[in-house]
Amino acid sequence: MTASTSSALPVEAQHHDIAERRDVPAWLEELRRWLIDAGIGWLLPIGLLAGWEAAAQLGLLPETILPAPSAVFLAAWALILKGELFVHIGVSGARALAGFVVGGLIGFGLGLANGLSAHSRKLTDTTLQMIRNVPHLALVPLVIIWFGIDEGAKLFLVALGVFFPIYVNTLLGILTVDPQLIEMGRAYGMSNATLFRRVLLPGALPSIFVGLRYGLGIMWLTLIVAETIAASSGLGYMAMQAREFLLVDVVVLAILIYALLGKLADSVARALERRCLQWHPSFRQG
Amino acid sequence: MSLSQQPRRGAELQITGIGRDFGANTVLRGVDLRVAAGECVAIIGRSGCGKSTLLRLLAGLDRPTRGRIMLGTGEAPASARIMFQEPRLLPWARVVDNVEVGVPVSEATARRRSRALELLAEVGLADRANEWPGILSGGQRQRVALARALASRPELLLLDEPLGALDALTRIEMQRLLERIWLHQGFTAVLVTHDVGEALALADRVVLIDRGAIALDLRVDLPRPRRRDRPELGALEERILERLFDGADAGGIDAAA
Fold first, then answer.
1. Which CATH number fits the domain A69-283, given the four candidates 2.30.30.50, 3.40.50.1100, 1.10.3720.10, 1.10.8.470?
2. Mean predicted confidence (pLDDT) in B79-108
3. Given this model, what pLDDT does residue A123 score?
4. Scanning A26, A61, A281, B80, which has its CA 20 to 30 A from the CA of B214?
């Protein structure tokens, strides 16, 4: 008797569940699922923020060490009203993008050239590997002597930093394309251009995306260092100015914006990756 | 345009004194073989006997050290297609795009697509045209590879143990499909296999290669489709296996001496 009642219960609960779902429109159900999927990653940052705010309000965190999130928000609002914040973000964003495009294109081009031609690889790879082992930020003093604190300095450093991960991963991607597929392409009469377009490039793409996402990380890192050391505008400059005047809230604001921009860049790269690598088992829509 | 017309017959394959050395190692020593237009010849032999090397030479993937290969009236194996042991499909291209790889570039784009779909239907995979190859089974992938190989209506189809990696049931199914398509399209076929039963099921002639030379050339004059329990097949299989193991013993003594 007890067994039958206990087994009847979940069945009833299931019926209830199904009946309730039938009232909800499909798109709302989809939205709910998406919110749960996308939202779960934000649970931790928001929780941290709430804990931080509470600690600041209770006086556990002195304002000169770490101001409350609400204070940071107010500082952001004030900077927006003065029209400064978006200028700084725009300047930093443009620098990051320009350096990324220049360094990325050179890295991609050389990676392809060295992946496709053994001659080119023999000629340049040793040099590139030697340069790669010099931390590019060690060049900061030299770069300041060369370019001063002009845009050129930032562009050079970011491009140099982004170049290597993209170069190395493009090269690796091309070299590790399944030789059986290349042989098939040749046996089926593909021209060199077709072979590149249909076999080599798509085969190298997963690896190129790894380089892309790694390069984006280096891009922000380099820009922050470059702007902190020598700049007259941009987020790094804003943070250094604020430090001079002990405006801790603005310093924290700059750091938070870096975090958000970094996340944004990574999301864009991921979306691109999902679009381009639909065929790949790891990216297949579940 | 010519592709849409009735399939043309296969071409005659004439191999004269073909040899291939890799350094000091002679893999093929003077092989002579004539395959009539539309004939299906199975080449069997133990691993390392040179049968795959021969097929690669026929496909133009490798160049012979000596001798010449004639297909029809041409020297180059231009209208030959090879089907590998692995499907070798492009994982980033849909099934239909993979078949399109085999359609000659000279065809118009729309024509290429419809030709690819036609071939997919022929191997029974019309409904999978827009799938990624990754989700197909091993047998289905090999059928896509077959469709790709046939897409240019080759005069000569080379098969490099294409069924070797399939399970027993899928193998038989594929053998029947191959036979049906071969009978329908009439191309010349050279099938490399180490499965004597498969060779006898499909081929007009079974050629045994031993240490780089032809050791046996056997005609299989039995009506198709061949039932596996025919006594003649058993007798032929016995003869081939005997010759194979004779060769193995001789090789062993050679190596010891």
1. 1.10.3720.10
2. 92
3. 94
4. B80
